[in-house]
Each structure stands twice: as structure tokens, then as C-alpha cells.
Amino acid sequence: MANSVLVTGGAGFIGSHVADRFLAEGWEVTILDDLSSGREENIPSAARFVRGCITSPDAATLVRDGKFDVMCHLAAQIDVRRSVLDPVYDATRNILGTLNLMEAVRTGGHPTRTIFSSTGGALYGDFDPPPSTESFAKDPEAPYGIAKLSVEYYLAYYGRVHGLDTVALRYGNVYGPRQDPHGEAGVVAIFCNRLLDGRALTVFGNGEQTRDYVYAGDVAGANFAAATATLPPRGRLDARAFNIGTGIETSVNTLAETLRTVSGATAPIDYAPARAGELARSALQTDKARTVLGWSPKVPLSQGLTNTFTFFSDRRARLAAEAKA
């Protein structure tokens, strides 16, 4: 009998890549998504799809009765700006929604391994120079990061007190095909669409702020590695937390120039005032994931950006052809 995985948020950008990876490995995949930000077109045809919200009793029933081997929990309120404007909504989805699922795991009595999609850049803040290790001080600026950190504390609690099998993956800025321009790392999707429109690329500040851009396919691989690896003993907050990135700082200026190169476009770059509260530098040290999970990033930035731009270009051409038909 094949192993089974529940991917919450599996109709979303990252979640759909995670679902694809588990299907490719021969697992039975169930997707739970309310389609508030995910798209039906992202759902793999071989997966079972259940439409629902993670805060609902039906979602808890699905988790409790499904007896999944693994739950990859990616469903979330993903917009940092919305978390600032409405922290109650953010906490309801990202904290209470997760607790709804974790209580279902606890009361269901099945040893479901829960893999939580956390954040790297938004967790560590701007107080220590990158690359950040898992043990760096956590001091998130926005409610989005605060909620992610809160959930990690709850996961550590469920592990220590109730013996649940939990792990947190702290992502860098994930990019790739199917990316939503409104997500945490939506700049790549935004730049791709602007290049296709022949519009200028807008860079905030001087463009020298850095991020750790990690390809969605590599993130999917990290989820599969976390699902199948032998994990360290349960313990304090960072015991089962892993940075998932490249360890490479890439400036927004470099990102824009690389995208212009791979796309062949000559769009100008416009500079706008810096945004308040934006991190100056971010990169994640991934030695722990390499050693414990056997995971390391495979796709270099230039190749990943080429794949992403090609996806958006092909998608636009397909939609134009469908509109004419």
C-alpha cells in the first residue's frame, strides 16, 4: 500500500509543487485547499482534492480520519502586508487554523508526521549578518512572521508534551512556475509579468537589499526529504527546524538584471522610495538540512529564473490563444 500525504494549500504555488513531488515518488496525495489564493489549474489530476478551510470542523475531521502518514502544512494567509493591516485575520488563519489541524492529529491517534512551512527571512530579522543559522535570535517584524514563529513554538510543544512527529522548514524567498505575485516573494512573478508587458521594473530603495531565492522544485524536494528522513530527537524550538535556501545573497538589482538577460527584454529599471521596515539583507545557512535531511538546492538562480519566465510567457500565449478560440 502506498504511503499517503495530505498537502494543505496544495492548490497554491508552493503546495502544488510539493504535491507533484510526492506523486512522482508514488505516494497517494490528498489536497486540502479553500482556493482563496490557490488555483484549481494548479491541482495535479492524480491527486484527490478536498475543498475546505483549515479552520473548519470538516478539515479537522479529514485530518483525524484520514490517517495520513505525512501532512505537509502549507495552507496560510500568505500576504505580509495584509497581516499588518489585519493581524486578527492573519492569526485566525495561520495560528488557529494550524491548531485546528494539530488537535486533529493529536486526537486521531495516528502517527502523522507534520511538516510545517515556516519562514526564514521573516523570522530572524535584521539584527545579525547573514547567512542565518537555525539558532539565530528570532525577532520578526510583521504579524505574518510572528504567527509563523508562534506555530513553531506550538509544534515544539506538541512534540515534547504529546509526542507528535513535527518538523518546521524555514524557507527563503521561494520562486518558480505558478508563483503568485501577491505572495511573500512575489517580486520574481511581478518582474516576469512586467517584462512580458514591456513595462519598466520597479525597484524600491537602491536595489542593494538582498534575499535568498530558492527554487520551488527544490523546496518540494525539501518537503519530501523531511517526510522520509530520520529526524533528530524532539526538544527545544530549533531541534527539528531546518533552513531551506541557498545561502546566497542576491540583490534586487542582480535579480532584475538576470531576469532581463534570460528574457531577452530591454525594459528599464525605475527606482522608487524604499519601503519602511524592509529587511536589508537575508540569506539562510543550510548545513543542517544537508547533514540531517540529505537535502541541498539543485537549481541555480539563472536556470530557475529561465524556467519561471518561460512558464509565464507560455501561460500568457496559451490564454491569448484560448481567448481567440
TrEMBL record:
InterPro entries xrefs = Epimerase_deHydtase, NAD(P)-bd_dom_sf
NAD-dependent epimerase/dehydratase domain location: 5-245
- The source's domain of life comes to Bacteria
Signal peptide residue numbers: none
UniProt-listed Gene3D superfamilies:
NAD(P)-binding Rossmann-like Domain, UDP-galactose 4-epimerase, domain 1
Q: Cross-referenced SUPFAM superfamilies, in alphabetical order?
A: NAD(P)-binding Rossmann-fold domains (SSF51735)
Q: Which family does it belong to?
A: Belongs to the NAD(P)-dependent epimerase/dehydratase family.
Q: What is this protein called?
A: UDP-glucose 4-epimerase
> Which species is the source of this protein?
Gemmatimonas phototrophica
